[in-house]
């Protein structure tokens, strides 16, 4: 869609627009207001199955820890302290999962590559801007198209089926918290499993659980396997996310070896830009910025996202 004095190219990489570019077209502003007023959710079968499976595995771990290991214990304070710690970690992990899944990761409005929008950018003569040929939007700097979300996502790191969403500019902090709390709860569960096995062996498997010894062994072994897998996966993801934030480079940019055309925010500056503000306990809180949105029924206009 050419316009006087500048060119528009249908390409995927190296856009010239920055993340802070804005425009005043009425159609685009109403579209962005629509997005702000509804809950983001990706209607992807594989992602929804993975998200439900994640919740079921966390609930299973909580069941085993609470009803197999802690409640039958004769040490009251041991049960209370460990029960409170594990359940708090589980609640924080699932809350972070929900925030990651239901937060718009930074989607660029579809179809904003209009003549009015381009004129409002006040581009210099000869300046080149880039349009995504898949969702017909003007691509901001560092945006990439997600084939599952069917949208261009600002600072897209990757699409994670376990949270049924892209990890991008607006929800990366919640994904980091999710991996951290799952890793911590996995370590806690593994420690409790080890102590429970020692206790059961010393007591000849009598009075160490309200379940029969074979059932207890099966439940504990499965929890150990789950804890090891969850810890390995989330610890690696947590480490790679922190590394990406501190180097101000998304996973896609690293894999594509894209040379930075932006001013990098390294280390603490990168952490502040993702988590918001100076270091504080609020960084650990997945409820920061949460607000209830009005339930609404909306017709789908294409694409996998819908509002609830």
TrEMBL record:
The DHHC domain is required for palmitoyltransferase activity. Belongs to the DHHC palmitoyltransferase family. This is Palmitoyltransferase. Keywords: Acyltransferase, Membrane, Transferase, Transmembrane, Transmembrane helix. It catalyses: L-cysteinyl-[protein] + hexadecanoyl-CoA = S-hexadecanoyl-L-cysteinyl-[protein] + CoA. One of its GO terms (cellular component) is membrane. The keyword Phosphoprotein does not apply. Its EC number is 2.3.1.225. The lineage of its organism: Eukaryota, Metazoa, Chordata, Craniata, Vertebrata.
């Amino acid at each position: 869609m050419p316009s006087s004095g500048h060119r528009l190219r249908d390409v995927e990489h190296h856009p010239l627009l920055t993340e802070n570019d804005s425009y005043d077209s009425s159609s685009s502003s109403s579209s962005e207001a629509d997005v702000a007023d509804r809950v983001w959710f990706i209607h992807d079968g594989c992602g929804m199955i993975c998200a439900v499976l994640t919740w079921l595995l966390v609930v299973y771990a909580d069941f085993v820890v609470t009803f197999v290991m802690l409640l039958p214990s004769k040490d009251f304070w041991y049960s209370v302290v460990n029960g409170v710690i594990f359940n708090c970690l589980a609640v924080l992990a699932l809350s972070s999962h929900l925030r990651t899944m239901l937060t718009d990761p930074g989607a660029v409005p579809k179809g904003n590559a209009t003549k009015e929008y381009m004129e409002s950018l006040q581009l210099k003569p000869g300046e080149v801007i880039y349009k995504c040929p898949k969702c017909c939007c003007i691509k901001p700097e560092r945006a990439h198209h997600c084939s599952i979300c069917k949208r261009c996502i600002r600072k897209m790191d990757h699409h994670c089926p376990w949270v049924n969403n892209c990890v991008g500019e607006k929800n990366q902090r919640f994904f980091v918290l999710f991996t951290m709390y799952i890793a911590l709860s996995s370590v806690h569960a593994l420690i409790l499993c080890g102590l429970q096995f020692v206790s059961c062996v010393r007591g000849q498997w009598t009075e160490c659980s309200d379940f029969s010894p074979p059932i207890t062994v099966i439940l504990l072994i499965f929890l150990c396997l789950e804890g090891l897998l969850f810890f390995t996966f989330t610890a690696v993801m947590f480490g790679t996310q922190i590394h990406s934030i501190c180097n101000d480079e998304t996973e896609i940019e690293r894999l594509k070896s894209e040379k930075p055309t932006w001013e990098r925010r390294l280390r603490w500056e990168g952490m502040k830009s993702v988590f918001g503000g100076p270091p504080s306990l609020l960084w650990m809180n997945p409820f920061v910025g949460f607000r209830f949105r009005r339930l609404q029924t909306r017709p789908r206009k294409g694409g996998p996202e819908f509002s609830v």
